[in-house]
Amino acid sequence: MAKLLIVYGTTEGQTRKIAERMAQRARDTGHEVALHDATALPGDIEPAAFSAVIVAGSVHIGRHQSSIDHFVRTHRAALENRPSALVSVSLSAAGDEHDRQDARECAEHFLAGTGWRPTAIHLAAGAFRFSQYDFFKRWIMRRIAREKGTPSDTSQDYEFTDWLALDGFVDDFLAGAGPGR
Ligand SMILES: Cc1cc2nc3c(=O)[nH]c(=O)nc-3n(C[C@H](O)[C@H](O)[C@H](O)COP(=O)(O)O)c2cc1C
Q: What Å distances lie between residue 10 and 21, 49, 80, 179, CA to CA?
């Protein structure tokens, strides 16, 4: 059984949902999990007390949340001393090969900035959460949706996350984390 720490950053809520799903999957498969929003971490959080760590964040204009950037920079040594993973959530991850290359580059840019070398990286498709956007964001995101040929009715949200692929990622990551590590 692994003792797993999941820390996430979210702007419109999809990465929270993804982090909660990962936590549930890990618990359902017999692991112990602590789940925290990176903007509300307990002051005494100690990644070295866990056997594995997943950091999840989403991409906005090419960048991940500063809260997860800060967490990773502060705890990089502990992350690199145990199995650790980045889950990067974006709409590019839902696209074609060119879009997925953009998603990879955003993740790599985050890793280069923090200096963190995780054991695993998972690119997860996010959502259009029109219900969470202000007028300006809704206008921009509707334009992007139209350009991409995805639904752009702003009275609804559209989720592209592949939940089964996410479960598979958690299972593989935890299998590598192994007991006693
Ligand atoms: C203002 C804004 C900018 C965004 N910029 C990007 C981007 O540069 N690349 C991308 O792939 N997705 C981008 N997205 C899509 C988000 O990554 C996606 O909606 C994700 O689900 C957000 O996760 P969150 O709800 O956890 O914040 C953007 C979304 C918004 C609202």
A: 14, 24, 23, 30
Domain residue ranges in the chain? 3-126+161-177, 129-160
Binned average pLDDT, 10 residues per bin, the chain of 181 residues: 96 98 98 98 95 98 98 98 98 95 98 98 97 94 90 92 98 82 40
Would you say 14 and 157 are in contact if contact means Cβ atoms under 8 Å apart? no
- Give me ligand 1 centre to Cα 33, in Å: 26
Q: Please indicate whether residue 127, judged by its CB atom, sits closer than 6 Å to ligand 1.
A: yes
Q: Which CATH class name applies to 3-126+161-177?
A: alpha beta
Contact 13 CB / ligand 1 (< 6 Å): yes
Is the distance from the beta carbon of residue 126 to the nearest atom of ligand 1 less than 6 Å? yes
